Records
---
Amino acid sequence: MISFCVLAGDELAGRYLNHLLSLAKLTPTLVDRAKLIFLVEPQKISPEELARIPEEAPPRARIIAVSHKRKTLSFGHLKISYFKRPFTPERLYSFLEEELNCRFPLSPEEYRHPFIGEDEKIIKIREAIPVLARLPEPILLFGPKGVGKELLARHIHAYRQGRFVKFATSALPEEMIDPLLFGFGPGVIKKVKKAKEGAFAKVEDGVLYLENIENLPLSTQQRLLLFLENGYFYPLGSKEPVYSKAKLILSLSTPPEQLLKEGRLLPELFFKLAEFTLHLPPLRERLIDLPLLAQHFLESYAWVYRREIVSISLKLFERFLLYPWPKNVAELEEVVKDIVIWGEEKVLKEKFTRAPSIKLKFRNLEEMLTRLLEERELREQIESSHKDRGVNRTGSR
């Protein structure tokens, strides 16, 4: 077990690094017990704190300075390595595996695109991924657009063998959905003489991700139900069933109860999928993760565009906290990308033109995160109180 300690001159960058290391199953601890001691932007760490490291660190501890510019450091007998910012998770993990001569217990998707988040709901989902991947049963993901359903589907696939095929209906004419999904025989489609395989056949025993199944015609949903019940499907124009071991992951961007009420979701299909469902909360319900996600996108896009790493000001974070984020994590990613390309002032001017009616003043990131935790705990207490009194806020009279 590899223990580590992060000392940060850049508070948010240090928190992000700590999160990535924890996701790789490294163990956070104090300086005097750490095998690895990370100094994030050491030029911003107080000289007094740096001076204590040689006295407190174990004899075989290793120092890793993480910074956008190299600073000469000396800690006596302790070995020092340098890791340059900005960085991607893949670069960080590769660097550490080479330094430590080991391999982290991460799937390929976790290695490249980690499922970021400290919110309790996100932690539970992340812990369930390996278990869900081993099950043959289909999985239903639901949550509004932009919350990361495809990323979650890819994480589940990463714990399995086989191909990953995404099937999205948004740009398809309705009459083409069944042929492309299930395949078709010769002559079924005009001017197409040969039979063609659909997404089901192409995925073989891998994962077929069906995005936004509320957009599927009810006849297609009925075909899916047939497959889930019997393990086979019929290509269009064929009387011979085709058996498949494909694992289905399906997603909804509209609440299931609304779709059932509107008649857009086949009840039998929904109840078949209801056993293994995961709800991804909107960003406004997991604001505790907003700083981590923002830093993740900041580091990644600074690396992609070869830009000097910047820090997001507390002023902008205050705007972030009061913004409703209707497009969720996908919108935050676009905003941070614009910050990297165009700068914070331009984004503030164009994206957050109107000052919020409520003003928040935080002295530092820790104060902001503490406030978020307190607000979440208060919200959970209120919800628990409502349940204890038999109040059903989602029911109708």
Note: The chain has a mean pLDDT of 89.
---
Amino acid sequence: MEPFPQNRQAPGVRHLPPLRSAWWVWSLAAPLYLVGFFHRVAPAVMTGELMRTFAIGATALGNLSAFYFYSYVLMQIPTGILADRWGPRRLLTAGALVAGAGGLFFALAPTLGWAYLGRFLIGASVAVAWIGLLKVSSEWFPSRLFAMVTGVGLLSGVLGAVGAGPPLRLLMDHAHWRTVMLGAALATLAVAVGVWTVVRDRPSQKGFADYPHSATTKGHRPVLEGLAEVFRFRNAWLLFIIPGGFVGAILTFSGLWGVPFLTTHYGLSTAQASTLTSLQLASWALASPLFGWFSDRLGRRKPLYLAGGLLGLIAWCVLVYLPGLPLPVVVGLLVVTGCATGAMIVSFAFAKESVPTDLAGTVSGLVNMGVMLGPMVLQPLVGWVLDACWTGDLVDGVRRYDAAAYRAGFSLMLGWLAFSLILLVFTRETRCRHYTEGP
């Protein structure tokens, strides 16, 4: 069957793309987001190797991991604007090429400075992946499916994070971490070829009709005017801050500090601990489309978001503040916190419905910037707290932190999540209707 069947209707008559064609385009746009998530959490199972290779402690390791987020966050507003002007095909192709180059720098880094540069380039380049994927989803699918497709998009990304858990650990048990990361860099360059070959910015470039909600035919505002306009909408700036608490918690834990926490205080091997953190991420991935689908069906955004956040905060508090829990309880709490984090996927549909259509890319970039502010700030900050609370204990040349140090560090995550819930109360419900449809 042809991926893009020819239009056999009367000349001049165009029909909306069938879902199979939309999913085909989407499936070639999604891999860069998977690659980005892989790099986002890979340091979690490489903590010992990276500390030994570059002779660093928790603060420096936190910064090495966070260099990905520094550039990722800085790129979000430019990415949203470029998505509105360049289109996803060029944006995703360029991102994959630069990400591959950054992966090479990281894999071959002779010093910590070169490793920083590699992580910085990776973060800056894969920053385009989510916004580009949202743009493809918005242009190729009916608006009634947007929240669900967004959830499936997050699922595809978290599959990359799961690949950076036990599978990555298994590979590193048989090959040097540099060899493994070199292979990941080469795979990323192959993604660029796939995107350029298959992805198109909108259905009309493949002979289909564009959806009425498409913003591609509208004029674009000047950059600063568009950004200033977005901040006029209360939901936009609230949803800039809120998801950072949700994502900051899970990516600070599963993306970096959860594995050493579980190995130190629950006697697990690195492989076992990475399996549990991957389970948490998988729970997040699987719950996200369900939150999106249920939100679309319910016709509401705010109640589900609040419910997920409150459930997550309670589960995180139990995990962090009650030491010595039975392992099955720990596993259950990781699943609950992962599932609860899935509520944050509502942010993107929520924000998109809160502003004019021609600002969709800009507001998506703004929200995604807020999403990544959480781990960008929390990963190194938790590392700094761990070092500040370190008692001098070393195991195989790597610092070991006690339970009190982890409680102090993880309290920062819970504080942001609680603040997010307070702000969420002040958002205005859109009832799944776009801004242009009126109140």
Note: Confidence is low (pLDDT under 50) at residues 1-11.
---
Amino acid sequence: MKKQHFIVFASVLIVLFTVTLLAQNKPKDPYGKADKAEVIVRQVKPNHFVFELGWDNDEKLAALTFPLIVKGKNFKMHYDSVSWKGRAEGFAVKSVLPIDSLQQVLVGLLADITGSTPPLGEGKGALAKLYFTVDSGTKRAIDVCEIMVDTTTIGASNNTLYGVIPDGTGGIHPAYSVVRMSAAGQPILCK
């Protein structure tokens, strides 16, 4: 009887987990066309990688959360640093919270609490570059196709991939994609 309860319980957990993952990948944008959030992964030198975060929006945004899980197949990735480039420069508050033990990183951007800094305007482009290193215990060269990067939910506030419009009454859940590039800057198709 205990085995049947366990199987039912495990089945329910699997269904809930699958529904949560599918909901994360479904864009929701009541203010126009669906926004797009993109991560471009590129090797900068052996076992050192840059993750360029981009956002394409057709409405103004006052805040963004960009939570990611970055891990490898049988190796760990560690967050090193951030470079705020392009569209993020207009935000008053820019932060990165790495959670190395879970191989997660939460990027947060806030235009301004006082309203003196304008929100992110409509457009497309890079927000930040995150730099990661493969765990020093890994003795072989790692390829970009061996790195998994995806959106995730990071507690305690259940941060998800999300944008907030300036009046704070609504939000955007963008479409999400990952592009892997060779060190020479050419797109790579991974199997």
Note: The first strand starts at residue 36 and ends at 45.
---
Amino acid sequence: MTDTHTEQRSPPTDLEPIVDHGALRDNADIPFHDNTDVVDADIVAQVAELGDLAGVGITNPDGELLFRRATDSCSWKIPVTTVAPEDDFAGEIRSHVRETIGFTLRLDDIVGVWDISLETEDGEQTASRAFVIFSATPESGTYDLTDATAEGDAVEEAGWFSTPPEDADLIPGTEQFLD
């Protein structure tokens, strides 16, 4: 697997929508990771069916990271949501967290973009998936999950963790928030 990126941080993202993650590639302030891997055709086919993702790391004043389980059978992840073509990555993750956890977010930074490409050994089948990962803080300044009221279908469970839960799925970018 190859991985290329820069190590700088971006300006706040509440200023404009992000519809084309590829347009961020030329922004020297945003770490852009290109990952390519050769896999079986079945995996390429599975990934081809998946949408791009927006995720967010929210760290409380104690340095703990917010993880959530969407359903009782899901693994723990930082908040993440699918982004359809032509939708705004920043708007979708803000909406998702408000609807499922109850925090209204101020997006502070883009911590990175991961453009994952898969191909079969012969190169005839390919698929790609993008992850745009933000850091954010609750606009209210409070991190109390018991006071947060989801505006839609709430997640099964959410909590603050100093280390990832045992069955956590560390999507690309999660490691940016861990010591």
Note: The domain at 2-177 is CATH 3.90.79.10 (Nucleoside Triphosphate Pyrophosphohydrolase).
